[in-house]
# Entry
Amino acid sequence: MQFRTRLKTSQHLIDLTPLVDVIFLMLIFFLISSEILPLKSLLIEVPELPTDQPARLAQLIVVMDDNQVIYIGSKKEIIDMGSVKDRLTELINAMKSEYPNYSPTVVLNVDRRVDFGAFMRLFSQVQECSPRIRLSFNSRT
# Structure
């Protein structure tokens, strides 16, 4: 079975495949053989920071979730309401012994579904330990 086509073959088409191949080979050659001069010649002056000062983000985190479970510190250890003050005092003293001129900030992150009484009990214990408190409320639904 033969099909008829009405398209005429043209002898004037140019095949660009070899040209593209040569251009890619030249591009690869120049990328590999060239030196990256601007990166080698940059002179950047880095400011010196005192080594006895902590990072600006050194904070103590106290979290209370919607089930009134309290997590404290960077390792998020679970603590009951009665031992928050003792553990927070230990962490603050450890941070002050490492950096004597630094007063850490306590970040109090409370879920919005926690009742006001539980929040106030936690807030008063944190306030007895540190004068610097930052409140953060979780707004998840």
The helical segments are 17-33, 37-40, 84-98, 116-129.
